[in-house]
Write a structure and sequence with these properties.
This protein is α/β, with parallel strands linked by helices and about 240 residues long. It has eight helices and 13 strands.
């Protein structure tokens, strides 16, 4: 299985820290944020990785990460010219994926859980998609999945009323049919191609499964507070392991 790490975006919520660099290059405890998703994928056996960034700082990623040899991986790079959303960025991976199943990892999602077993389960699944869920205290701020009898029955973005405490985090497994669907997607009200619409499409086809991650999870790119919290959690985890 191949991997795609999304490291684009303007990082406006972390300005002025992002005035001269990409948010995924900011430090989280003792290493750049982008190292965390790379290490998670490599530890789970994903060695061919496409890193997609915006045009402003693409060279910084190349200078930092190189060929991937340091990580025991092989890196390729691409640029998302415009901020067209997560699904728009994923569309750039079609040639790299070349018909194979693949995993998408948002570059600012940092967590403790190992992904190996979940990836094996997805590969055994053979087709469709798999999303990753995490129990959270404030589901109203996130997209959440309602699960009944071991199956996802609906996905709701930032629910105003309680639906579930299982947040959809930034790791997704897809088969290659995603690319044909993304070509039919229309931008949302905020002008982006939404990954939630992709997951909803797989759900309607009854081809969407899930894994629930244990341990801590942090979104390093959401705010100054979330960046600080991700660093704290990463530090605690490192010192214990």
């Amino acid at each position: 299985m191949k991997g795609v790490i999304l490291a684009g975006g303007t990082g406006s919520r972390l300005a002025p820290l992002t005035k001269v660099t990409n948010k995924h290059l900011l430090p989280v405890y003792d290493k750049p944020m982008i190292y965390y998703p790379i290490e998670k994928l490599v530890a789970a056996g994903v060695k061919d990785i496409l890193i997609i960034s915006g045009p402003g700082h693409a060279g910084h990623f190349l200078n930092l990460l190189g060929s991937g040899k340091e990580f025991g991986a092989r890196f390729m790079y691409d640029i998302q010219e415009e901020a067209s959303g997560i699904a728009g960025a994923v569309a750039l991976a079609e040639r790299f994926v070349d018909g194979e199943p693949f995993v998408v990892h948002l570059g600012d999602n940092i967590f403790a859980a190992d992904l190996s077993d979940a990836f094996k389960e997805y590969e055994a699944q053979g087709s469709g998609a798999r999303i990753f869920l995490k129990e959270v205290e404030h589901p109203e701020q996130l997209g959440v999945a309602e699960v009944q009898n071991g199956k996802i029955v609906r996905i709701v973005e930032k629910p105003k009323e309680y639906v579930s405490n299982l947040a959809v985090i930034g790791v997704y497994c897809y088969d290659a049919t995603i690319f044909e669907f993304v070509k039919t997607l229309k931008p949302s009200a905020r002008g982006e191609l939404e990954i939630t619409d992709v997951n909803q499409w797989y759900l309607e086809k009854q081809a969407l499964t899930y894994s629930i991650l244990e341990g801590w999870w942090g979104d390093g790119g959401e705010s100054f507070d979330s960046l600080l919290e991700a660093g704290r959690l990463a530090a605690e985890f490192r010192k214990k392991n």
